[in-house]
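Example 414, ligand cytidine-5'-monophosphate.
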Amino acid sequence: MVEAQSPINLWGKRLVLGVTGSIAAYKAVGLLRSLVCEGATVSVAMTQAATKFVTPLTFEVLSGRRVATDLFESREEMAHLALPGQAHAVIVAPATANFLAKAAIGLADDLLSTMLLNARCPVIVAPAMDGDMWAHPTVMQHVQLLRARGVVVLDPEVGPLASGQVAQGRLPTELSILDAVQKALISQLDWRGQRVLVSAGPTQEPIDPVRFISNRSSGKMGYAIAEAARDRGAEVILVTGPSSLTPPSGVTAVSVNTASEMSDALSRHFPSSTVLIMAAAVADFRPKVSAGQKLKKQGKSELVIELEATPDILATLSLRRTSQIVVGFAAETEHVLSHAKDKLRGKGLDLIIANDVSRADGGFGSDDNAVVILSATGEQKVLELMPKRRLADEILTTVRELCLVSPRRESLVE
Ligand code: C5P
């Protein structure tokens, strides 16, 4: 089981630390220090009440990032959307009874509560309050509601409280909060043990030493898939055509130019991979002959370049597979679903991701995309327009559900 494995550090993890207005807010300073020392990038969001106990400057210096306190402060930054959207986990420590109530009913009247509604990652809440407040039926009800919704609400510790009371209400220890964060992150590592081969970007097919045939692919979708697979614990090899993007750290990147180079690189890594996701826009045709020197225009009124088909890498690898899951993309401008279905069958794939690249709001070069995933066993999943990084996670979740957790491969066998 994943839980039994050695603890992960927080290197490369993006966290949001929400601080609310309890006297225990000073303990959030130590927590922030520990999270940063473990390697996490932490963005702190404070409620107005929290700023009465500890100054935002303290968190700003220790996190090295601007502290978000006001929903209306800098609208261009959209911190209430951007921070939780990119976070691997949101931690609220300390969480007051007021915060628990707002979170339970979905109120969004300040920055932190609005952030929470935008979070799609694990949320860990560490309450701190007076003992009578914690024991109040309303607070208990809110805690139950939050837990039922999947929020990790830690139990406060029993001990002396600021009021002088000895009761349950102390902020859970830093160790137990860190432990809960680690557990939540480990449960996200659902691709651990997989070796994922991802192709991305266009290919360039030379006409002569200075000219080539290529396409509009930016590589954004493939790079997002590589990053998402890495974040979910997979070992990732990214075979990339020319792209202005920087490969995600922790991923083995192999740069290629032509379809033939891409084919060689993928063929080398395919046998030891468990999943191939072919997001590259491989050129379908290339010049039959690539001139050794730059072609000159003198005396010519036209130039005919003869093209030949490139090898279909995906179809070839699919034929060679042993137990690999093979996923392709179908970038189409018309009859998107029927063309995608033909490719799914024709290339012998497990899944195909149908992508209407004629849309102005998605497709090549865009930061967003909308796709339909079709499986060889007849399932269909529509994924509406969303950022490519979030879409990458949805694609990985679908691949995992349909092919890795409950594989239904029988129908692939003719
Ligand atoms: O046939 P079409 O090019 O539309 O198929 C798209 C899928 O096939 C994509 O996953 C693409 O990466 C892959 N492909 C390939 N080799 C080619 C052309 C496309 O692997 N020569």
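Summary: Confidence is low (pLDDT under 50) at residues 1-7, 410-414.
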